[in-house]
Design a protein that fits this description.
The protein is an alpha+beta fold. The protein is 37% helix and 21% strand. The longest helix has 25 residues, at 252-276. The structure holds zinc ion (ZN).
């Protein structure tokens, strides 16, 4: 596909980064702020049905109305210690987590944003059932920050604290959506940039920079799903489209490009419709064309009729030749309509006049009969849905509405990132989504809080520091990217930093791979082990043994060394070993060294032994 001239198109784009914080508790309750391990069974289930409720202004939000119309049931799984009455909306929220607030203030300082004087907790309507209460809590913490990028400053308009939504459980039955509450309420920090991002590569750079900065606080969760990007994208003559849930940074440039292609193509579709003098249809022309296909050779439709399904056809006046217009790679206007039918009605998809319907076994006569039934002229197109009558009706209604939307160009939508493409989710929520949370009083941001929120050193300074501590280039880079960096810094006073780094990055990893539960070894035990090593009480090779034993037995380090005979041999003992081996006739130095090392690997310091052998 041709390169995109972003500037010429009037491209505007901002990103919202959502990052889970590594706090001990959730944002508004005392539950553990980490999802339960995979495979853990839920301790209870809560069921709800969602209704679209009018907001404060008395208007029903379009996104809420859309979801309400889907009539789904929601089931929420609770997990012991990881969800409570607060997540289930049976108890008011507790105090805002001071730990999460401190992190948000650190992040605010890092982007030069000014903290607000007082925090006001707000409720934000959630329309997809992902919260029992129907809302998510959010708190504006700071405004007007900025980020330096290779292409100039990008403003960070807001820094917020938010509750994570509950996680969806795959594989639910039809009409039922299952969510897990362990994820809900984990603190998130959200940074929203202004719309000054220049193109897809720039979007990636901005997201990457913010991600690195957040990791650099040492206060955020790591791993899949702990950070995600939402994008707001528009072009001149279009409308704002929100793309949710981009996780792969590498896919961002293409994702942005494809969305811009889609919007530009929709603007072209509008131009073409105008040129033709086509107008939005006031009422849909829908015909039941099941009879046309009574003896069809099309397997798909034949099976549908055998299953007592109904085939409804919809006239798309003025759309001839447009259904097949490519909006993104492998995504035509017809695909777009099909996604609406799927999202709104749960229909499998549509068949339309822009397709090679002969491929499905639809004969030219059958096509002709559909067109006659609908009264299609040369400028018109059509779409068909085969489904239960009720679902087919909803599906063609969705396609009709989407087709009418083409006269406005780009519809305001929330879309989902799927690899490098965007897929329709629901209409963009209206502005009436936020209202105050009256159960949590405002929290003043004090000078003490601001002082306590200490900004960590930058990556550049940190790298220089690691190199000056004796970590080589490779080890320093590894440590910068490692979640153990904080632990390393705390432990680096207990032994040579390079040895501490190797212990944390390599020894621990090797032990974990060997099935040793090293996560059970606490910081104190590690510090004591390193102390013994640097005092010369144990040899280098004893360190993995001690960690391994500590993980398995949980005993104090000194006791492990004593019980397992892991102490380092002094010079006297080494001389005895050398003399004893020589007495047995081992004369050659290399053989002598190897033999003693082999027998006493964990107790002997290799350098010292070499010196004694001479
Ligand atoms: Zn809770």
């Amino acid at each position: 596909m041709a390169a995109i001239d972003f500037e010429k198109l009037g491209f505007r784009c901002g990103v919202e980064i959502h990052q889970r914080l590594a706090t001990s508790k959730k944002l508004f309750c005392d539950c553990v702020a980490e999802p339960a391990p995979q495979g853990e069974a839920p301790s209870a289930l809560t069921r709800r049905r969602l209704r679209a409720v009018a907001g404060e202004l008395g208007k029903i939000d379009p996104a809420a109305a859309f979801e309400g119309a889907r009539g789904r049931e929601f089931v929420y799984q609770s997990f012991e210690g990881r969800s409570c009455e607060v997540e289930r909306d049976e108890e008011p929220p507790h105090e805002l987590s001071p730990e999460a607030l401190e992190t948000a203030l650190v992040v605010s300082k890092m982007v030069g944003a000014s903290a607000v004087d007082e925090l006001h907790v707000m409720r934000k309507t959630v329309v997809d059932g992902s919260a029992v209460s129907g809302f998510q809590r959010t708190v504006l913490v700071a405004v007007d920050g900025a980020l330096e990028t290779s292409r100039g400053k990008v403003g960070v308009q807001t820094v917020c604290l938010e509750e994570e939504s509950s996680g969806i459980v795959e594989g639910g039955t039809e009409g039922v959506v299952v969510y897990r509450l362990d994820r809900q309420g984990i603190p998130l920090v959200e940074l929203a940039t202004d719309a000054s991002i220049r193109d897809g590569m720039h979007a990636r750079e901005v997201a990457e920079k913010i991600g690195l900065m957040l990791r650099n606080t040492g206060r955020v969760q790591r791993g899949i799903g702990t950070i995600r990007q939402d994008l707001n994208i528009s072009i001149r003559g279009g409308a704002r489209v929100e793309v949710k849930g981009a996780q792969e940074l590498a896919a961002l440039p293409e994702l942005v490009e494809n969305e811009v292609r889609r919007q530009a193509a929709l603007v072209e579709v509008r131009g073409e419709l105008e040129k033709r003098g086509a107008k939005p249809s006031p009422a849909a022309t829908i015909r039941n064309v099941s009879g046309v296909f009574a003896k069809t050779g099309c397997i798909l439709l034949k099976k549908a009729l055998e299953a007592k399904k109904t085939i409804l056809a919809l006239k798309l006046a003025g759309f001839a030749g447009l259904m097949e217009k490519e909006l993104m790679p492998d995504h035509r206007l017809g695909t777009e309509f099909s996604h609406y039918a799927r999202a709104r009605a749960g229909a499998g998809g549509i068949i339309h006049s822009g397709e090679n319907t002969a491929k499905y076994g639809v004969s030219p006569q059958e096509r002709g009969a559909v067109e006659t039934a609908l009264g299609c002229g040369a400028d018109d197109a059509w779409a068909m849905v085969a489904d239960s009558k009720e679902r087919a009706e909803r599906a063609v209604a969705a396609v009709f509405e989407r087709a009418n939307g083409c006269f406005a160009g780009v519809p305001k939508e929330t879309r989902r990132a799927e690899g490098e493409k965007t897929v329709f989710m629901r209409p963009l929520p209206g502005a009436a989504r936020m209202y105050p949370e009256t159960d949590v009083p405002p929290v003043p941001v004090t000078a003490e809080m601001m002082k306590a929120a200490r900004v960590p050193e930058g990556i550049g300074e940190k790298r220089a520091k690691y190199l000056s501590m004796g970590l080589g280039d490779v080890l320093a880079e590894k440590m910068l990217a490692s979640p153990e960096a904080g632990l390393f810094e705390r432990l680096s006073g207990h032994a040579e930093p390079a040895f501490v780094a190797v212990t944390l990055l390599e020894t621990m990893k090797n032990l974990r791979r060997a099935g040793i539960p090293v996560e059970k070894v606490g910081e104190k035990q590690l510090a004591e082990t390193l102390d013994l090593y640097s005092r010369g009480a144990v040899a280098r090779n004893a360190v993995p043994e001690i960690i391994s034993e500590a993980a398995k037995s949980g005993l104090p380090v000194a006791k492990i060394v004593e019980e397992k005979g892991l102490g380092r041999f002094g010079p006297k003992k080494l001389r005895e070993l050398v003399d004893e081996a020589r007495a047995r006739g081992v004369k050659e130095k290399a053989v002598l060294f190897e033999e003693i090392m082999r027998r006493n690997r964990v107790n002997v310091d290799a350098g010292e032994l070499k010196q004694i052998i001479g």
